[in-house]
Amino acid sequence: MSNDPAPVLERVTVLHGHTSPETAYVVEN
Predict the structure, then answer these.
(1) What is the dihedral of CA 4, 29, 11, 3, to 10 degrees?
(2) The pTM is what?
(3) Which whole-number Å values give the CA distances from 26 to 6, 13, in the listed order?
(4) Which residue range(s) make up the domain with 26?
(5) Is 9 helix (H, G, I), strand (E, B) or coil?
(6) How many CA atoms lie within 13 A of 21 on its CB side?
(7) DSSP output for 10-27
(8) How many domains does the chain have?
(9) What is the average pLDDT value for the chain, to the nearest integer?
């Protein structure tokens, strides 16, 4: 997980664009 922080941030950005309850908690977190 902490091995590649770059991909994690990119993933969050993608989720941010989506409008789902599962992703909503991720953005709020």
Answers:
(1) 10
(2) 0.18
(3) 16, 10
(4) 1-29
(5) helix
(6) 0
(7) HHHHHHHHS--HHHHHHH
(8) 1
(9) 56
